[in-house]
Design goal:
This is Glycosyltransferase. This protein has two domains: 198 residues, Rossmann fold (3-Layer(aba) Sandwich); 130 residues, Rossmann fold. The protein has 13 helices and 16 strands. Helix 3 packs across helix 4.
Length: 354
């Protein structure tokens, strides 16, 4: 069976999920062509697992000072080229079409009257799950950005809805966890503000991954360029993670049992809702703004939760092979039955989880 798989590449989360799906699909005998959009071609890195993949400009969201800028978004997106990419993408040679919130694939499939399966976190918002920052613009973007015929939503908790756990790798156990080591990934924030936030906290070692560079920093703040291998090494042996409220990195942190503090991207309904979901399930802490007092309180008083997720990619591949496009509630429940929550020594959280 030949599959066309579109992946939104604006952030790293969608690509990370596709990295997990790729070997599972290959092992099942699927022949897959991948398309990446939303990021310049020369900014894609470590893409070997996807073979001879395709690229289009697509659509992306622009940010400024830690929030979505709809003005910059409208100016920077080339709508005419986007429409041309949709019209010229021929899907007739493929048996199955998948989109991970990737709009060129989704709209090309719709125009060619083809069924398209949406796999991703955004598709969970079609169900009554925790939401905030929800307005007509946010609802319109979620509904029409990358529409799918069949939607497989993913989330950290099922919220009694037919959505699946995250698609993530099962990481190797680190030789040791460094209690004072904190991984920081806030790519939408000004690197100078991040340095100013963390500079007085000299009892900790902060490993900050950023697309920007700052040479004016104290010795306990290590600023690093984006590298999947390096990032994964630091994620494995750190004790804590500070990040925006995206889905994939928080999922990996939970799987590894890292203490988690998120700063949601302002004016972005998905991230605001993710932060709310983390608070409601007591899986992580939230700071609405970059705030040193919040960071100090979390570092000294926060608790880690480890969530052991099953191999969701293999469950999805099995579902794809079955040919049944109905999302069966019993199947979804059986996947969640494999999830294990470890609240450690925090008695309040263990009691609430019971």
């Amino acid at each position: 069976m030949r599959i066309f798989y579109g992946v939104q590449a604006t952030g790293n989360g969608h690509i990370t999920r596709a990295r997990v799906m790729a070997p599972a699909l290959k092992a099942a005998g699927f022949e897959v062509t991948y398309l990446f959009t939303g990021r310049p071609w020369d900014h894609l890195f470590e893409m070997e697992v996807f073979g001879d993949y395709l690229w289009r400009k697509g659509l992306t969201f622009s940010t400024k000072a830690g929030r979505v800028s709809y003005l910059k978004t409208s100016v920077h997106n080339d709508v005419l080229r986007f429409v041309q990419d949709i019209r010229t993408l021929d899907l007739s040679h493929y048996d199955l079409i998948i989109t991970d919130f990737e709009p060129v694939t989704a709209w090309a499939a719709r125009m060619q009257k083809r069924e398209v399966i949406g796999i991703g976190h955004q598709y969970a918002f079609g169900y009554p799950i925790p939401k905030t920052g929800d307005d007509i613009l946010a609802r319109t973007v979620l509904k029409y950005f990358a529409p799918a015929s069949v939607e497989l939503g993913l989330h950290w908790h099922h919220f009694d809805q037919p959505i699946l756990p995250p698609v993530i790798e099962t990481p190797p156990e680190p030789e040791a966890v460094l209690e004072q080591k904190v991984l920081v990934y806030l790519p939408f924030e000004d690197i100078r503000e991040i340095v100013a936030l963390l500079a007085p906290l000299r009892e900790y070692e902060f490993h900050v991954y950023s697309p920007a560079v700052s040479r004016d920093r104290p010795e306990h703040i290590h600023i690093k360029q984006l590298s999947r291998a390096g990032f994964q090494r630091d994620l494995r042996d750190c004790s804590s993670v500070i990040c925006n409220a995206g889905f994939e990195l928080a999922s990996e942190a939970l799987q590894m049992g890292k203490k988690l503090l998120v700063k949601p991207l302002r004016a972005q309904m998905e991230q605001l809702s993710n932060a709310l979901g983390l608070e409601q399930t007591q899986l992580g802490a939230v700071m609405p703004e970059l705030d040193r007092a919040s960071v100090i309180h979390w570092l000294r008083n926060g608790h880690a939760v480890r969530v052991v997720y099953p191999n969701v990619a293999s469950h999805i591949v099995g579902w794809l092979k079955s040919g049944d496009r109905h999302i069966d509630h019993a199947w979804v429940r059986s996947v969640w039955d494999e999830v294990r929550y470890d609240y450690g020594a925090d008695p309040e959280r263990r009691a609430n989880a019971a």
